[in-house]
Amino acid sequence: MADGWLNDPKLNQKGYKRWFLQKAERGGYMYNYTLDTVATGAKIKEIRTQKHITVSQICDHLGLCSEQAVYKWQRGESMPTVDNWIALLDLLDVRFEDVAQKRCIDPEYERCA
């Protein structure tokens, strides 16, 4: 851990390096949640079907050559790139927070219970 971004002087000035290393020593995580790709994919499909939007329409709006990408998102096998997220949210007329589903990765975090 002694190389890379942890040696950035700005990181050390603000005390973030010390905080990160202390958290890592305790076996903690920097973040308590991660994106649940399967649940998020199911939410994409749910919203898409509620709004009567076809996979083909999503492909046309995003400029995708194949529908397979959208089906992979819906199954949680992959997620859209940032630019595709922006276009997808625009088409579905929803916010990212309405679609993205999170799951807890730190069982000791008080909000995960």
Characterization of the model:
The protein is mostly helical and 113 residues long. It has seven helices and two strands. The chain has two domains: 27 residues, no CATH class; 72 residues, 434 Repressor (Amino-terminal Domain) (Orthogonal Bundle), CATH 1.10.260. It has a two-stranded antiparallel ribbon with strand order 1-2. The model has no long low-confidence stretch (mean pLDDT 80).
The main pleated sheet reads as: 2 strands, antiparallel
CATH class of the largest domain: Mainly Alpha
Q: Distance between termini? A: 31 Å
Q: Strand-and-helix sequence, N→C?
A: HHEHHHHHE
> Which percent band covers the strand fraction?
5-15%
Number of helices: 7
What does the overall shape look like? elongated
Number of DSSP strand runs? 2
CATH topology of the largest domain: 434 Repressor (Amino-terminal Domain)
Q: What helical percentage do the residues reach?
A: 40-55%
**Which CATH architecture of the largest domain would you pick?**
Orthogonal Bundle
Number of domains: 2
- Tell me, rounded to a whole number, the average pLDDT: 80
Output the CATH homologous superfamily of the largest domain. Answer: lambda repressor-like DNA-binding domains
